[in-house]
Amino acid sequence: MANFPCYDDIVSSLPAAAGLPGVDQIEAATDRLLAADARVTARPCGVSRAGHPLRCLEVGDGPLRAVLLGLPHPDEGIGELVLAHLIAVLLSTDLSERLGFRFSIVRVGDPDGARLNEPWFGRPADLATYVLSAYRPAAGDDPEWSFPVSCKRYAFTRPLPETAAIMSVVDREPTDCFMALHSSSFCGAHFYLSDDDETLRSDLLATIDAAGLPRHLGEPEAPYVERLGEAVYRQFGLSAEYDYLAGCGIDAAAVLESGTSSADYAATAWDAFSLIAEAPLFSTPMIADRGGSGVTRHAARLAGIEREQEHVDWLKARFPEVAARLVAESPWLRAARSYLIAAKTDLKAERARLGGDPTMATEATVAELVDSVQLRELGALRPLGQFAAMVRADPVAAADPVLAAYADEAEQRARERLPLLAAEAAVEPVPLRRAAQLQLAALLCALDCVRERFRPRRPRRRRAAAANER
Predict the structure, then answer these.
(1) Which of 92, 295, 380, 395 is close enough to 299 for a disulfide, judged by CB 3.0 to 4.6 Å?
(2) Residue at 64 is within a domain
(3) How far apart are CA 180 and CA 106, in angstroms?
(4) What distance in Å separates the CA atoms of residue 323 and residue 328, rounded to the nearest whole number?
(5) How do residues 18-59 score in pLDDT, each as one tens digit?
């Protein structure tokens, strides 16, 4: 593999990992760190809904400040491998001085949700285990999309306790760079930037190549995402989704249930530069194939929509009866219900957009086809796993043969499709070390970019709501 474009020695020394650490492992590592080195300090910043304390670590010494958020979604644990290595390097080298940054780090943004994902953290390369065990919160349960926002006729003002904890970290003092360490399920490596920078885009593509990962040349994550360059997109918040839904003839204010993202909040609070490095858990070389597929983008997208719709219809037909037999309002139940509500709106909007988008008449590349069809269906199988987990998590499930049969049916439906889709799309697990190296290299390149070209030239626009010191 090629050298990473900056700080190659630091990125290359990131160790391999067989699995992802759980919440207790991360907290124990933090405790050992605090006991061993006084240069790291911890400040309480909040408590989760289940009563788990959230801590912000302070490390390094520089005129600029970076805020890093691990496990922003509870099924995205690759970032902890990055944070553990970065903290060790900051304490053993002069990296902080070279970068000109000090760091405020929250290692676990959603500890309650992360615990629900721990069953697959030890087997991240097993596709079926991941699809059937991964937990992604409902819109109202997701701290990462519960930051306050006001957009036209819609306002969200009810941040979750975990969200309020991250807000306190961001608001505490000027934030120059913000990175939530997200990762993805089935795609190529790609990035989101709050501000375009040609040199940084070039460096980011070089980090993909150095990590030995395919570039994401498929479709954007959402139809309203702006492409800045190959595998690089503009960071977006809730306002982009609002405008998109409105443009599709949907009353956005009536259907939206969430707030905006942590990166959008940091940009509003301090005009902070934000970076997201989407490192996939599973990928395929086909996602970087620019060759023609022989079908239009419209046909490819429609095929993917129809495949997801089949799974949505299956869930929708069974959900009312199953939910009526359950006795517990579990996070899994809320996640399954939220997915069905969102899918109804999202699939309707996507169909409406397809009919009026002339670019959809062009031939799809191989990358766009596999992304629109096979990789999309892989993602659509995850709600089947959440449906089965919803059933099995309920206290009455073990004694109710009807519920057990529904859970088995959902799992079997996913297990039948998984090997077929993986074979069709040549999907393989991504080594955790490579995914973590991508994120770390991208962060270091971005910090150099912020120091050299975005600070202190850019004015800070502190939110009025942050005027009261937290």
Answers:
(1) 295
(2) yes
(3) 10
(4) 9
(5) 999 999 999 999 999 999 999 999 999 999 999 999 999 999
